[in-house]
Design a protein that fits this description.
15-stranded mixed beta sheet; mainly beta; 5 helices; globular; Polymer-forming cytoskeletal protein; about 200 residues
Length: about 200
Amino acid sequence: MNPHTLKSLKKQKLIKKADEDLDLSEVVQDEDISDSLDEGVWIHEGDLTLDGELSVTEGALIVQGNLTVSESVSTDETGTIVVTGDLACRHLYLEGNLEVQGNASVRGVVYGFYEAGCSRVMGTMKARIGLFGNHDWECDDETYETYARFSNNHELHEGEPEALRKALGEKAFAGLGRMMGLREDDAPEAADNAAYGLALLKDL
């Protein structure tokens, strides 16, 4: 199944273009995220539930309600997601901007490494695994079974390698090893690895 995108959501008439007179600073709480938004802003009014994956690129999706996605939610460096309610998904992959004004619940992995964007969860963040590199991440109430904080391709600052290996499995652990600063070169598992790790998370 192809992931849901801004283009496919527009085709399904699930989102509409934000009104030109909409003051985004009244909708988006984080000033940096609000200031980064331009004319490519699309809005869904009310709760939004999607079967499959959601990938937001080259624009912004604002959900004025709860966002529930059965599989992964991802942003690349050009994408922004703002949820005024709660977010629930399988995996959460962050390169661009994310703001969740309620709580976030992730059954698998939260993975943020890219410096281009920033992510804010105003309520609680609960996930099985949290992996954070150079991505600008903020949440004051986080709960993970397994956690890692690292400098991209340099050093593991927080987290136990063996606990990460057990939680991620051998393939994902080896494929993400260089990114987490645990090896000097890429493992074979990282070959043809789309999006610096997202492909490795699909089996978790």
